[in-house]
Automatic annotation (TrEMBL):
<feature type="binding site">
    <location>
        <position position="295"/>
    </location>
    <ligand>
        <name>Zn(2+)</name>
    </ligand>
</feature>
<keyword id="KW-0342">GTP-binding</keyword>
<dbReference type="InterPro" id="IPR030378">
    <property type="entry name" value="G_CP_dom"/>
</dbReference>
<protein>
    <recommendedName>
        <fullName>Small ribosomal subunit biogenesis GTPase RsgA</fullName>
        <ecNumber>3.6.1.-</ecNumber>
    </recommendedName>
</protein>
<keyword id="KW-0862">Zinc</keyword>
<dbReference type="InterPro" id="IPR010914">
    <property type="entry name" value="RsgA_GTPase_dom"/>
</dbReference>
<dbReference type="GO" id="GO:0019843">
    <property type="term" value="F:rRNA binding"/>
</dbReference>
<keyword id="KW-0694">RNA-binding</keyword>
<keyword id="KW-0378">Hydrolase</keyword>
<feature type="binding site">
    <location>
        <position position="302"/>
    </location>
    <ligand>
        <name>Zn(2+)</name>
    </ligand>
</feature>
<comment type="subunit">
    <text>Monomer. Associates with 30S ribosomal subunit, binds 16S rRNA.</text>
</comment>
<feature type="region of interest" description="Disordered">
    <location>
        <begin position="353"/>
        <end position="375"/>
    </location>
</feature>
<dbReference type="Pfam" id="PF03193">
    <property type="entry name" value="RsgA_GTPase"/>
</dbReference>
<dbReference type="GO" id="GO:0042274">
    <property type="term" value="P:ribosomal small subunit biogenesis"/>
</dbReference>
<dbReference type="GO" id="GO:0005737">
    <property type="term" value="C:cytoplasm"/>
</dbReference>
<dbReference type="InterPro" id="IPR004881">
    <property type="entry name" value="Ribosome_biogen_GTPase_RsgA"/>
</dbReference>
<feature type="domain" description="EngC GTPase">
    <location>
        <begin position="119"/>
        <end position="270"/>
    </location>
</feature>
């Protein structure tokens, strides 16, 4: 299976150059500099400057911060941005260039806010442990967001060394994951024994940009250290009682390999809250949508309608009951989020009014600080 992207999602090319020039003209900036966000921690950003191949630090302009309708308008790791120089290595970030891929999740709780994770990734590697935290259903949830981001998903199962004397059980678990992730390449590795890493080498030879995501303690930073060839990220052992790890990565940082490829390491994410228009659902459950084409009714819910193609496929064993239940659960969650975020819903209006008030107060406080600073 060839899942190699064309790399048009991450690279600086002629089209991005045109976008950069147009935005510079629209903003009336005479000395613009193009840069990429290669690290972020809070409101501090690390930049790689395109033209001079040097690094610097960036802060947001007041206009960018306070004119943003949501966090989607602010930069994240992987973004290409327009900046101007302040002094030394310090730059002001004026604008985020149009993105070609964007991984987003919903913020925790009932708050209807997007939480962008990374942008302009060619591939997103979803790391999942083969230890006691093994939960294939969680992969399906995350794949919805990855497919929708426009990046190519790759699943990497870590800690295969735990099955050194149980090879048949290992093969069974890998097969379970393959069935849960149709259309996605699946690999198994052992960071401890450095096994399976050679199969991933093909992904680092093309100058692409990739992100590592997964739960805390799954081995993201350990794998990155092995690829870099030195310990650049701290790692912690997981608790044996529940196979859960502590957060050792607290920021998002991109690292360049010798091949020129970039890898983004991210803090642990145990479960992604869905922020989706539903388009990733079909790519995550293609067999269900294919069977649905045989349903008598176009709006078939696959629950009680007669002549349902999906129920027929389940009876034939072409679709597993577990996959179908997972599909229904995620579909209901997506529908609920869509209903709550509809412009005419009470929840949407309340959230909009709340954040409008917060942003107004933040702007007032910033203006007050600016006045005091320049007295």
């Amino acid at each position: 299976m060839d899942q190699q992207p064309s790399l048009n999602l991450s690279v600086w090319d002629a089209d991005r150059e045109k976008e950069f020039i147009k935005i510079s003209e629209d903003l009336g900036i005479s000395d613009p500099v193009s840069a990429r966000i290669i690290g972020e921690q809070g409101q501090e950003f690390r930049l790689e400057l395109v033209s001079i191949k040097e690094e610097g630090t960036g802060t947001l302009t007041g206009a960018l911060r306070f004119n943003a309708d949501s966090s989607l308008d602010l930069p994240v790791a992987g973004d290409w941005v327009l900046v101007t120089k302040l002094s030394g290595e310090e730059y002001l970030i004026h604008k985020v260039l149009p993105r070609r891929s964007l991984l987003v999740r919903k913020t925790k709780g009932e708050t209807l806010k997007p939480d962008p994770i990374c942008a302009n990734m060619d591939r997103i590697f979803l790391l999942h442990g083969l230890d006691g935290d093994f939960q294939p259903r969680r992969l399906e949830r995350t794949l919805i967001q990855i497919w929708e981001s426009k990046a190519t998903p790759v699943v990497v199962l870590t800690k295969k060394d735990l099955y050194s004397d149980r090879e048949e059980e290992l093969r069974e678990k890998i097969e379970i994951v393959r069935k849960s992730c149709p259309g996605v390449e699946v690999f198994s590795v052992s960071n401890h024994k450095q096994e399976g890493l050679e199969e991933l080498e093909m992904f680092w030879k093309d100058g692409s940009t990739s992100a590592f995501i997964g739960s805390s303690g799954v081995g993201k930073s350990s794998l990155l250290n092995l690829l870099i060839g030195e310990k650049i990220r701290s790692v912690n052992e997981v608790r044996e009682s529940d196979s859960k790890g502590r957060h050792t990565t607290t920021n998002r940082w991109m690292f360049r390999l010798d091949s020129g490829a970039w890898i983004l390491d991210t803090p642990g994410m145990r479960e992604i809250q869905l922020w989706s228009d539903g388009s990733g659902l079909e790519e995550t459950f293609p067999e269900i949508f294919e069977a649905a084409s045989d349903c008598r009714f176009q709006d078939c819910s696959h629950i009680s309608e007669p002549d349902c193609g999906v129920k027929f496929a389940i009876n034939l064993g072409k679709i597993s009951e577990e996959r179908f239940k997972s599909y229904l659960k995620l579909k209901r969650e997506l529908e609920r989020t869509a209903n709550l975020s509809a412009p005419n819903s009470v929840e949407f209006r309340e959230q909009k009014a709340k954040w409008k008030s917060i942003h107004k107060e933040q702007k007032r406080m910033q203006q007050q600080r600016d006045r005091e600073r320049y007295r």
